[in-house]
Design a protein that fits this description.
Structural class of chain A: alpha+beta
Shape of chain B: globular
Largest sheet of chain B: none
Number of helices of chain B: 10
Largest sheet of chain A: 6 strands, mixed
Order of helices and strands of chain B: HHHHHHHHHH
Largest interface: A-B, 31 and 40 residues
Strand order of the largest sheet of chain A: 11-6-1-2-3-12
Helix content of chain A: 40-55%
Number of strands of chain A: 12
Oligomer: heterodimer
Distance between the termini of chain B: 50 Å
Mean pLDDT of chain B: 81
Low-confidence stretches of chain B: 70-91, 94-99
Chain lengths: ~350, ~160
């Protein structure tokens, strides 16, 4: 009979629910706003891409660009401890430097094998459910937000990078020789500073934001156009995954531009570009010798990087929108990264390579 | 089904469900709003579910169960007028409601998971297996939650009479 009273109580109070009409309008408005913000954030895919390329020379150069970088680089020819094993870097694309938008929307592992034949770019999906140290299981992208929070406002980018690196280490078992964070603005400035890049698209892309159409085939992108392209996710055949692929293509194109114009080997040009990017780029190479990395990176940047993606068509997600990986397939890739056997892995999984 | 179809047909029912979960029309609106924004942004994923309705109900329930730990609750707190903390509002509401409606007041003191199980059983009339699915727990846990909640309510009833 308590059961019957419960039914009656619920029925009575259910009738008291507020009308749905105004709420419906509020939901639509908030969703539209968040969608705009989210697409802006996606640009960071571009940021990531750029990082892949830019981060590398920067890692060689030192920490955040300072006004007198030229001597610094010039003095570096006989560094101690030039690393000879495989190298792993973590490149993070972040929307901005405010507390509420410092989210790592692009997480890219740059793997340089021991033979230095080329760089591999492995995207880690931002919505992946991951155990964030001290915060439990959340989306991977939140690790940066949590790590960069500071009470005074503004975002602590190095702190965000550290927590994200720890999280990715927990996920993959890889330890990182360096991290780099590139913001949205940094990406645009970087692209413009190198004079734009040439990018080849497999299919035409229309921007939802500027209505601009990027035709299939090869074309020049300046900073604004690059960001516009890398924001596009909706309307592409596989959504976010295609956007990640565009980011990898962009990173490759930028790397090629920087090598062909000898940015990497010309300290004056390099320092000018890094100054243009300013605080939109933050790097940390931990225990490695920065100067010791540079020759290696110059060598690697000469070969076209290989982008590696995921097959997400049927990836399960939980009720909070967190993505779950196919554990066996993921472990296989992570083991190849740890064991420096990625060349063989790519041979066995040609469909996972971004073209 | 499109998002618009879904919202047209399901929004009112979700609001009622949220009112019964939270016991407060304002919190219910916030809960439904936050859930439905996410539903709209991720509609393709939601539409792929066997039953979008159940999927969304589960999202909403999780949001409710998580609200003290997660960001949702924080956002609600931050948005509330200063001097009008949400917790106090809930207590006041329970107090007013208790005058009108004893059981409604007692419900506000139940653990959230137990309350959700009661709503799903006695308002939504779902079988135990579906309740377990919505709550993301075992069927045995559902039965235990319901019987514990009913025992609490019966004890209150005895004490009150």
């Amino acid at each position: 009979m308590i059961e019957e009273e419960l039914r009656a109580t619920f029925a009575r109070h259910g009738e008291l629910a507020p009308p749905a009409g105004p709420l419906r309008a509020a939901i639509d408005a908030i969703a539209a706003r968040r969608r705009r913000r989210r697409t802006a954030v996606r640009t960071t895919g571009a940021a990531l891409a750029v990082l892949a390329v830019v981060g590398i020379p920067v890692l060689g150069r030192g920490l955040v660009p300072t006004p007198a970088p030229v001597e610094q680089v010039a003095e570096a020819p006989s560094p101690p401890g030039r690393p000879d094993g495989a190298l792993n870097f973590l490149l993070l694309g972040v929307e901005g430097q405010d507390q509420d938008n410092a989210r790592a929307d692009s997480v890219l592992i740059v793997h340089v094998p021991r033979d230095r034949s080329r760089a591999y770019l492995v995207s880690v999906p931002r919505d992946l459910g991951a155990d964030i140290p001290g915060h439990g299981v959340r989306k991977l992208s939140e690790s940066f937000l949590l790590g960069s929070a500071r009470p005074s406002g503004g975002a602590d980018l190095p702190g965000g990078a550290r927590l994200t690196a720890k999280t990715v280490t927990g996920l993959t078992g890889l330890t990182f020789d360096g991290t780099a964070v590139l913001t949205f603005d940094g990406l645009r400035q970087l692209t413009d500073a190198v004079g734009g890049v040439e990018l080849c698209l497999p299919a035409a892309v229309q921007s939802l934001h500027t209505r601009r159409v990027f035709p299939a085939g090869c074309q020049q992108f300046d900073g604004a156009a690059a960001i516009d392209l890398l924001r596009q996710r909706y309307g592409l055949p596989v959504g976010a995954h295609d956007r990640d692929r565009n980011a990898q293509r962009f990173a490759t194109a930028l790397a090629s531009k920087m090598t062909s114009t000898e940015v990497l080997t010309n300290p004056v040009r390099l320092s000018k570009i890094l100054q243009a990017v300013g605080d939109g780029l933050v790097t940390d190479t931990g225990k490695s010798s920065l100067a010791g990395l540079l020759p290696t990176l110059v060598q690697v940047a000469g070969a076209k990087p290989v982008g590696i993606g995921w097959d997400f068509d049927n990836a399960p997600t939980d009720s909070s929108g967190r993505l779950a990986l196919d554990r066996a397939a993921a472990d296989d890739l992570f083991a190849a990264l740890r064991g420096d056997t990625l060349t063989a892995w790519v041979g066995a999984h040609p469909d996972r390579v971004t073209r | 089904m499109t998002y618009a179809d879904f919202a047209d047909t399901r929004l009112t029912a979700l609001l009622r469900y949220a009112v019964l979960l939270t016991g407060d029309p304002h919190l219910a609106q916030d809960l439904v709003q936050e859930t439905m924004v996410r539903v709209q942004l991720n509609w393709r994923r939601v539409a792929r579910a066997d039953s979008p309705d159940r999927y969304v109900r589960r999202m909403l329930t999780n949001q409710y169960l998580d609200w003290q730990r997660g960001t949702w609750f924080k956002r609600v707190l931050l948005r509330a007028d200063p001097g009008e903390p949400v917790v106090a509002a809930t207590v006041d509401h329970a107090q007013n409601a208790a005058d009108r409606d004893q059981i409604w007041g007692w419900l506000s003191r139940l653990p959230r998971r137990q309350r959700a199980a009661l709503v799903l059983r006695f308002y939504e009339d779902l079988p135990d297996a579906e309740i377990a699915e919505v709550l993301g727990c075992a069927v045995g846990t559902v039965r235990a939650s319901i019987s514990r909640a009913l025992a609490t309510l019966r004890a209150e009833l005895v004490e009150a009479s």
